[in-house]
Amino acid sequence: MSWVPESAGSLFDVHNLPYGVFSLGGSARRVGVAIGTSVLDLTAACGTQRSPHTALFDAGTLDPLLAAGPATWRAQRGEMTGWLTDPAAADRLARHLVPRADVDLHLPFSVADYVDFYASEQHATNLGRLLRPGQQPLPAAWRNLPIGYHGRAGTVVISGSSVPRPRGQRWVGEPGSRVALTATERLDVEVEVGFVVGTPSPRGSSVPLQDLTDHVFGVVLVNDWSARDVQAFEYVPLGPFLGKSFATSVSPWVVPLAALEHARVRPPVRQPRPLPYLDDTDAEPWGLDLQLELRVNGCVLSRPPFAGMYWTPAQLLAHLTVNGASLRSGDLLASGTVSGPAPGEWGSLMELSWGGTRPVRMPDGSELTFLRDGDDVVISGTFPGPGGGRLGLGEVRGTVLPATG
Amino acid sequence: MSWVPESAGSLFDVHNLPYGVFSLGGSARRVGVAIGTSVLDLTAACGTQRSPHTALFDAGTLDPLLAAGPATWRAQRGEMTGWLTDPAAADRLARHLVPRADVDLHLPFSVADYVDFYASEQHATNLGRLLRPGQQPLPAAWRNLPIGYHGRAGTVVISGSSVPRPRGQRWVGEPGSRVALTATERLDVEVEVGFVVGTPSPRGSSVPLQDLTDHVFGVVLVNDWSARDVQAFEYVPLGPFLGKSFATSVSPWVVPLAALEHARVRPPVRQPRPLPYLDDTDAEPWGLDLQLELRVNGCVLSRPPFAGMYWTPAQLLAHLTVNGASLRSGDLLASGTVSGPAPGEWGSLMELSWGGTRPVRMPDGSELTFLRDGDDVVISGTFPGPGGGRLGLGEVRGTVLPATG
Questions:
Q1: Is residue A155 situated within a structural domain?
Q2: Choosing among B144, B215, B238, B332, which should be mutated to test the A contact, i.e. which has the most A CBs within 10 A?
Q3: For position A405, what pLDDT does the model report?
Q4: In terms of domains, do B207 and B92 share one?
Q5: Cβ contact (<8 Å) for A247 and B203?
Q6: CATH number of the domain enclosing B48
Q7: What is the domain extent for residue A69?
Q8: Is residue A370 part of a domain?
Q9: If you average pLDDT over residues A305-311, what whole number do you get?
C-alpha cells in the first residue's frame, strides 16, 4: 500500500503505475507516473533519489525508457514501487507529487509505425453483414491470421486533441451515383486497445508468441476515428486510407504489461487451430480482461469486453513479424474495434446504429447515428488488479469540430 | 559547367546535384552531393566556405535540410552551384571530393510515414486483369482519386540492403485449398518513384495542387518488393500488409525537385475530369519525364516511362491531405508501380511474366517468372536536363537471399 493520499484502492493504486508525459503551465515536458489523483514527477524524483534511471527521464518523453528493454523496465518499476510504498520516502518525494487535474498531458512516446488489426470476431462479423450483405460475413483468411494494415503514424494524437470533421470523396446518394468532395456524414469511433513496442527486433527475424513481454512495454486506449462514407468509397483494393488517416487518438497513460498480470485470461478457442507460429494452445495465455466503456456526451453507449478478442497481442506481434519485418521502439499495434456478442458491447457507431438505420436515442432526446459536430467522445477502461480490486487504463477523449475549408 | 572532373555532360552534371548520406571506411556519417564520379563532402565544404548552411549538415542526415523549407533549399543549392562552377573555388574545395566508388551510402533521411499509391493506369489495369479476370479491371474509384495505402516506414531500407525471402501464409495449390506458412514463391519487384516531403503541414489543413514545391523536396527511386502469394491471401478487406512490409528499398541520392525543371511534361488527359482539388487542367504541369529501367542479373527487363502516369505528385499530395491529414518532414509518397502500355514498359514481374504464366527467357537460358534466391535487381532512371542532356536518378539495388527460419 502506498503512502500517497487517495491512491489505495483507486484505479491508480500502486499496483498500476502507468507512465505519461506532462507539463505544468507551459513548463518543459517531464515524465510522470499516475498514482491516486496525483502525478509523481519521475524526472525530479529520480534526481532526489539518486536513481540509476535518472537519465531515462531527462528528455521528457518515454522513448528512452521504451528502448531500454525489459530488464530496465522491471528494475525501474521495482525501484519506484519501493519509493511509493516506503513511508520513510514520503518526506523526500511528496513534493514531487502534482495534482493530476493540474497537468497538461502530451503524446507520451514517438509513434514509429502504427498498425491496426481487426481482431474481434464479433466486429468483423458485424461489419461484414453491414458492408457485404448476403455474403459470408468474415473475410476468407480471417480465422487463419490476424488481418491488419498500416495506419498513419503522423496523425496519432493525444487524448483531448479535437477532431475536425474530415472531408473526402464519397457517393452522394446511392453507391454508383454522383461523387463529390464533402465533409463526412458518417464520422465514427472505434474502441480499441493499443500495444506499445519497446524493444526493437532486427529485419529478417520473427518474434515468437512467447517473446511478447520482451518487446511490448505497455498498453494504451485508442480511438481509431473513421469516416465510413469516405472509407467505403476508397477502400477497394488497397484498404482504408483517408477514411482513417485524419486522426487516431490515444490515452495519455501507458499501463505497463507488468500491471496487467491479474487481467490475463485464456483467449477463446480457435477453430480451425491456427498454424504453429500463432498456436497458443499450450502457451502462457495472453487474453486480457480489459473492460472498456464508450461514452458520447456523457452517455454510456456500450461496454466492449476485450477478453473475448479472437487474436491476442502475442499473436498480433508474432504475425506482424513472421515475414521478417523489423520492430522499432514506439511501434503501436492496435487491436481493431473491440465488440462483444451483445449489442451493448459493440465498439463503433456503425454497429450500434446498424449502419445508420437504427438511431440511438440519447438522454437529451436526440437521435445518434454517426457523430455530430460538438459531440464529445470518451473511451475508458479498467482491469482486475490484485486482491479483487480494479485498476484503470485512464481514458481517451476527443471532441468533433465542424469541417473547415 | 563545373570544374569537377568527369562531371560535365554526365548523369551527375552540375545541373543535377542530388543529396545523400555517406561514410568512408566506418567514419561518421556526412552529407554529400553527387557530382561526376565524385561526392562533394558538404559537411566539410560548408565549413571551409564559412557557409551559412553549415549547421544543416552537421548531423550526417538530410533531416535538417528537409525541415528547413523551400527558401533554404533554393539558397543552399544556389550557393553550392556557385562553388562548383567557380574555378577559383576549386583549390579550396577539391580536397572535399571523394570518389563515389569509395563511399558507403546510408538511408539519407528518417522516413516518417510511407504511403504507396497506385497511380499508373496500365499497372492497375494489368493487375485487375490478372487478379479479377472477367471483371472491370480498374477499381470503381480509380479515376476519381489516387488510390493508396500506408506501408511500413520502419522497413524502408537503403539501396544495397539484401532482401531475405519472406515467409507468409498462403494457399498451397488452388485458392481455397490448404493454407501453409512457407517462404514466398512469388517474390516480385515494383518499379516506383518516391517523393520526399520536406516542409510539414498542420493537421486539419490541406495542401493544394500548386503548393507541391513548398512541401516536396525531392525524388528517389523505390523498389516496393512484394510477395504476391502472401498479398493475395491476406489483402481482403484491409489491403496489402505482410506481402509488402518486409522491405522497401530506396535509392541513395535524393534528386531535388529543382533539378527536374526540364523533365516536367503535361500529364495525360483525365476522363472524367477530376474534382476541383485534383483538377490540374489549368495548373502548372507536374507530369515528369523520368525514364526508368529494370534489370535483373544485368539483363534489362523493361523501361517503364513515368511520363504517362495518370496521377502526378501534385495530385498525390493534394489527395493525401484533403482530409486534413498532416505532413511530416520525411514523409515518403511512392507512385506505385510504373507501367507503360507496351509489355517492355511494365514495372513488375507479375506483369512481365503475366502472373507467372509467361516466363521471361534470360540470357543464361533460365526462365524467370518471379525472383529466385540470388537474383540481383537494379532499378535506375534518367531525365532530361538543360540543353538536351540527360541527368540521373541513380539506382536502387537489392539481392534476394534465401529464406531463414
A1: yes
A2: B238
A3: 63
A4: no
A5: yes
A6: 2.30.30.230
A7: 19-106
A8: yes
A9: 98
Return the pLDDT at A177: 83
Query: Which grid coordinates belong to B150?
Result: 500506408
The answer to whether residue B36 neighbours chain A at the CB level (below 8 Å) is no
Distance CA B213, CA B192 (A): 20
Q: Judge whether B242 is closer than 8 Å to chain A, CB to CB.
A: yes
Give, in order, the Cα–Cα distances in Å from B175 to each of B171, B243, B370: 6, 16, 19
Does residue A180 share a domain with residue A36?
no
Answer whether residue B205 shows pLDDT above 70.
Answer: yes
Contact A150 B151 (CB under 8 A): yes
The one catalytic residue in B15, B96, B123, B215 is B123
In contact, B126 and B351? CB cutoff 8 Å: yes
With 80 as the cut, is the pLDDT of residue B196 above it?
Answer: yes
Given a cut of 80, is residue B79 above it in pLDDT?
yes
Which of B78, B106, B134 finishes a domain?
A: B106
One domain for residues A99 and A144: no
Domain count, chain B: 2
> Could you tell me if B182 and B270 lie in one domain?
yes
Least confident of A25-29, A63-67, B336-340: A25-29
Q: Are residues A248 and A162 in the same domain?
A: yes
Flag whether pLDDT at B405 surpasses 80: no
Within this chain, do residues B94 and B160 fall inside the same structural domain, yes or no? no
Question: What per-residue confidence (pLDDT) applies to B173?
Answer: 85
B293 shares its domain with B389: yes
Task: Assign residue A155 the CATH number of its domain.
Answer: 3.90.850.10
Mean pLDDT (chain B, rounded): 97
DSSP helix/strand/coil, A405: coil
Cis peptide before A208 (omega within 30 of 0): no
Is B123 one of the annotated active-site residues of the chain? yes
Predicted confidence (pLDDT) at residue A401 exceeds the cutoff of 70: yes
CB contact under 8 A, B230 and A323: yes
Using the 3D structure, point to which of B60, B75, B106 is the last residue of a domain.
B106
Nearest to A246 among B179, B181, B324 (CB): B324
Q: Is the CB of residue A302 less than 8 Å from the CB of residue A283?
A: no
B111: pLDDT strictly greater than 90: yes
**Cβ within 8 Å, pair B113-A154:** yes
At A65, list the grid cell. Answer: 525508457
Mean pLDDT (whole number) for A108-131: 97
A216: in domain = yes
pLDDT at A174 over 90: no
C-beta atoms surrounding A387 within 10 Å: 9
- Residue type, position A13, single letter: D
User: pLDDT tens, A142-151?
Assistant: 999 999 999 9
User: Quick one: which of B218, B256, B223 has its CA closest to B151?
Assistant: B223
B391 and B261 together in one domain: yes
Closest by CA position to A2, among listed A68, A108, A97, A70:
A97
